[in-house]
Amino acid sequence: MCSGKSRIGRELAAMMDLRHIDIDRVIEQRIGPILPWVQKNGEETFRVIERTVLRELLDYEKAVISAGGGTPCDGDNMERMLAAGTVVYLDVPFDLLVQRCEQKGGDRPLLSGLKGDALRQRMEELLNARLPFYTRAQMRIRANEDAHVIAARIMQAVEGQDR
Length: 163
Description:
CATH topology: Rossmann fold
Shape: globular
Largest sheet: 2 strands, parallel
CATH superfamily: P-loop containing nucleotide triphosphate hydrolases
Helix content: 55-70%
Strand order of the largest sheet: 1-2
Oligomer: single chain
Number of strands: 4
CATH architecture: 3-Layer(aba) Sandwich
Structural class: mainly alpha
Radius of gyration: 15 Å
Order of helices and strands: HEHHHEHEHHEH
Strand content: 5-15%
Number of domains: 1
CATH class: Alpha Beta
């Protein structure tokens, strides 16, 4: 959450002349705003929809897909992602992640209503649970710079893999 996946994904897609697809935006087209929907229907039901959307998107033409922070941790999603293409883990220093979520993370269902120490503790719990999945990515990029710089680094690495 708040790692810059969508912003960096858009930059990378533009640089590589590919389509950018944000899983959360596709889901919102189907169910409406995510936060109230998850509050009403639950995270597990959301994960079922997310899993379906991911599978559909992985069947598309080559694209840059920005997945939600919990996407790779559900079911066989990470295996499917790894088989479909290059998975990039955007590694953001924890304090910077907390700062970003405090500033603009209020619409995240798993952080809703949390501030200060409670927010920090919940983020730490989520990151600790998700890290084993994230570290399976083929590429780990330190993501604490400008989105354009990070996207350029990813593009360079991906192009190097294709040779």
